[in-house]
Design a protein that fits this description.
Helix content: 40-55%
GO molecular function: protein-lysine N-methyltransferase activity
Oligomer: single chain
Keywords: Methyltransferase, S-adenosyl-L-methionine, Transferase
GO biological process, one term: methylation
Strand content: 5-15%
CATH class of the largest domain: Alpha Beta
CATH architecture of the largest domain: Alpha-Beta Complex
Largest sheet: 3 strands, antiparallel
Mean pLDDT: 87
Strand order of the largest sheet: 1-3-4
Number of strands: 11
Distance between the termini: 56 Å
Low-confidence stretches: 82-89, 125-142, 593-600
Number of helices: 28
Pfam families: Rubis-subs-bind, SET
InterPro entries: Rubisco_LSMT_subst-bd (IPR015353), Rubisco_LSMT_subst-bd_sf (IPR036464), SET_dom (IPR001214), SET_dom_sf (IPR046341), SETD3_SETD6_MTase (IPR050600)
Length: 600
């Protein structure tokens, strides 16, 4: 047990306990645990201490110390409140007849949800305009961005109806409100899908079930379906013309194309199942439910809204594991999906159903003021992943990282020998990750040493056993090689920075032209038509074609605004890497080179 002063020692131990392998990789063998490691690690450590406060704290002084540590979380990890007080006062509770309020009422009355949070709308426009016009590294066309930002809808989320102290539960839901793939398989339609001789994967079952269930009037998730947007605005679903204009020639664009192609392949593979269902149930199933837009919508929903939930095992669980809990499964959890992501959240570690109460409970680890937006963490995600699967990006994201390719010239006469060394060391030639702060990844510098190696150095490396090779190249081989390696990296990063800087600031101002151009207009029109066919088939047509088109264009505008934030982070990252390389080069030049005869 820890007394006052001892809580800080307990925090150091909790930081070590909560370290991930990725954090260990970046921090090295002996991280300094007396200070915050990262926003994610600090949140996890504080959350663990709060959860075990009865053991950690002994006496009022210790409790106050823990409270102070929780209260100073943002300052300690270098984050400021994402929503200033002046904007907090502008948040508005959603109207009583809004889908969000109806969903909250449904789960409170039907499922016994307990929460002192409420759905609200936050001034997204002000946040976007502030983020895009302050401390940006992009050649931004401010007027165009402001104009587009004004067309982006207000941000919906959850706000506190009262103040919360660290350790309080902000929301509790019964286990029955959690819908995993295993739960889907137990429904009538889920069992039917499992019987179709198509060897459907769990992911396919979840998506096809969603495509049909969202139109079912008696669905237990009806209030959830009604609260969801028609367009999520992720890189998976925006028009291709908008995607390519917004992301230009970046690794993220390639990832987006690959992800979209994967969904296209899965959609085509599921077509026989769609035909089977339409033939077997012609009076119930509708052609419009099984169009591409409906499939993409279902996929975006599960990517953006589903969370990993671990539940206690049922008494009839037949798995061989001795654990008392089932493996975590992706699940839709109504109401929780309204909580927005933040790099400095109020709630983490909320994915385990309590085995005693059988409730999913969200506990805050830091104080929440009345009226403040309550945020959770989707994980330590870079902007590329947020934009790809969630449709947004965070200004100065502390978890941002970008892929960079440092491929060797194909004309290098030693190319194959260098590749052989990298293969033996189990290292990659091309793809490495860089971050906007901190040291460079040791693996990237090591790979550059091999790429810059001379014939004699490669011959020496050839004699080193495979098991010891990686350790060898992670250290300086020689002064000449180190200088050549750093120069090689500078050239590659400078090229990447120059390429990223080519992205025209006119993407924002040209957006309307892109949407009205032949390709963009055609893609928007197809999205709208397929959306209408699905809604007509489900008997839920609540908007005109013009309104649906407006919503589709709105999601495209939001994607462009957030892609600017992504590019801002990309450019800042490359600039940081170049600065770090300059510092490494300067430090190298300060080192006295020892003559070959061994005399100083």
């Amino acid at each position: 047990m820890a007394s006052s002063g001892g809580v800080c020692k307990s925090l150091c131990k909790a930081r070590e306990k909560c370290l991930t392998e990725e954090e260990r990789y970046w921090l090295g063998e002996f991280p300094d645990l007396t200070k915050a490691i990262s926003p994610r690690n600090e949140a996890a450590a504080l959350s663990w201490l709060v959860q075990h406060s009865e053991i950690v704290c002994r006496g009022e002084d210790a409790k106050k110390e823990l409270h102070d540590l929780c209260s100073s979380y943002l300052d300690r990890v270098g984050l400021t409140s994402e929503v200033p007080d002046c904007l907090l006062r502008k948040s508005q509770r959603c109207p009583d007849d809004s889908p969000e309020i109806v969903m909250f009422k449904t789960y409170t009355e039907k499922y016994g949800m307990i929460s002192d949070l409420e759905p609200a709308m936050f001034p997204c426009v002000e946040r976007l305009r502030t983020a895009l016009t302050q401390n940006t590294s992009l050649p931004v066309d401010y007027n165009s961005l402001k104009e587009i930002a004004e067309k982006v809808p207000r941000l919906r989320g959850l706000r506190a109806k009262r103040s919360f102290a660290p350790g309080e539960f902000v929301l509790e839901l019964p286990d029955s409100a959690v819908m995993s793939v295993e739960d889907i398989k137990k429904t009538d339609f889920g069992r039917l899908l499992a019987k179709i001789p198509a060897n459907l994967s769990d992911d396919s079952i979840a998506l096809i079930w969603t495509m049909v269930e969202r139109w079912e009037d008696e669905s237990s998730l009806k209030s959830l379906w009604n609260s969801l947007p028609r367009f999520f605005g992720t890189a998976l679903g925006v028009p291709t013309a908008v995607l390519e204009a917004a992301l230009c020639d970046t690794p993220l664009l390639q990832q987006a194309h690959e992800a979209r192609q994967h969904l296209e392949d899965e959609f085509k593979a599921a077509d026989p199942v769609f035909r089977t269902l339409l033939t077997a149930y012609p009076s119930y199933m509708r052609e419009g439910w099984f169009l591409r837009q409906q499939y993409i919508w279902a996929a975006e929903l599960w990517y953006a809204y589903a969370i990993q939930v671990q539940r206690p095992k049922d008494s009839n669980d037949s798995s061989s594991s001795a654990s008392t809990t089932s493996a975590p499964r992706m699940s839709l959890v109504s109401c929780v999906g309204l909580a927005n992501h933040s790099a400095g959240p109020h709630v983490v570690h909320f994915s385990a159903v309590d085995p005693v109460t059988r409730r999913l409970r969200l506990r805050c680890f830091r104080p929440i003021a009345e009226g403040e937006q309550v945020c959770i963490s989707y994980g330590p995600l870079p902007n590329s992943r947020l934009l790809l699967f969630y449709g947004f990006a965070i200004k100065d994201n502390p978890f941002d990282e970008h892929e960079i390719r440092i491929q060797m010239p194909k004309t290098d006469p030693l190319l194959e020998k260098k590749k052989d060394v990298l293969r033996r060391a189990k290292m990659t030639e091309e793809k490495h990750l860089v971050r906007p702060q901190g040291p460079l990844a040791a693996g990237m510098v090591a790979a550059a040493r091999v790429m810059a190696a001379s014939g004699d150095e490669l011959q020496q490396l050839k004699r080193i056993p495979n098991a010891a090779l990686q350790g060898k190249i992670q250290k300086q081989l020689s002064y000449e090689n180190e200088r050549a390696a750093l120069t090689f990296l500078k050239e590659r990063v400078s090229e990447a920075l120059a390429e990223a800087s080519k992205r025209p600031s006119a993407v924002a101002s040209d957006l309307d032209q892109i949407l009205k151009g032949e390709e963009g207009a055609s893609q928007i029109e197809k999205m709208v038509v397929e959306c209408i066919k699905g809604e007509e088939g489900g008997g839920s047509m609540t908007a005109t074609a013009e309104k649906i088109k407006e919503l589709a264009e709105e999601s495209a505008r939001a994607f462009v605004v957030f892609s600017d934030i992504y590019f801002d982070g990309l450019i800042k990252t490359y600039q940081h890497v170049l600065k770090t390389l300059d510092e490494m080069m300067k430090a190298l030049n300060l080192v006295e080179v020892t003559p070959s005869n061994g005399t100083a």
